[in-house]
Amino acid sequence: MALSNPQIVLFGDSIIQGSADVSSGFSMQSALQADVMRRLDLVNRGFSGFNTSNALSVLPSVFAPPSPGGPELKYLFILFGANDACVELPTNFQRVPIDKYRANLTRIITHPTITAHKPKIFLITPPPLDQIRVTVLDMANGHPAAARQTKNSAAYSEVVRQVAAENAGVALIDLHKAIMDRAIEKTPGFDPKGPALGDPEGGVRGYLEHLLPDGLHLSAEAYRIFYDLVRPHVVAEWAGTRDEDRVGFVLPDWRDAPWLEEDAHLKGKSL
């Protein structure tokens, strides 16, 4: 039976799908795969436009139950909410009410196919929203107003924090806070006690302009922030160990391979 590497699965919407993009010069997915090469396979299951209801409908097609020789789901990172948090408009149908969003997240992390693998589960807050920028682009695309709002998106991120806290064994990746903290740090003179960056009430985009170019999706710099949040969790088992460059390989490093002992002509020689 062929060996199958354990898997890290990134499950989410366009924020996850976009983590594979290399056009900016940095791919979060590629960087993570390089970190876990020969130990884990990283699988991107990002679906642009999906909300949590869509995610539940496709979940049985995305994840298979554990089986002999099948992949083991070892780490599961879940990021939905940017589309759930849309406001009601006649031109947009992605919205999921916040109470249903909470219930959907819970159903995803407790789904029998998921729990059968006993993975380490991470819930990720959606990133902040630059409503000032989003309004311009949405109206140019035929919407009567912004399809997303800063305060509403922040409320959905808070639900993710609560669901993670309420479910034992589920960890939180607070992408919303990390990106907003970077934006505040790099916006001189901004008062975080007032309206958030990107909120039309305050009228200041600040450094969100660089982190969320279209007001919603991540720039390369923002993906690096995301990467820095995720990486420690998936390398923790071998980082800092002796010979960490090859600890945990599914197939042995050439220096540790059993066939070296079988090759008589190599015995006694320096490798």
UniProtKB/TrEMBL annotation:
Residues 10-225 form the SGNH hydrolase-type esterase domain. Pfam families: Lipase_GDSL_2. SUPFAM superfamilies: SGNH hydrolase (SSF52266). Keywords: Hydrolase. GO terms for molecular function: hydrolase activity. Gene3D superfamilies: SGNH hydrolase (3.40.50.1110). It comes from the Eukaryota. PANTHER family: ISOAMYL ACETATE-HYDROLYZING ESTERASE 1, ISOAMYL ACETATE-HYDROLYZING ESTERASE 1 HOMOLOG. This is SGNH hydrolase-type esterase domain-containing protein.
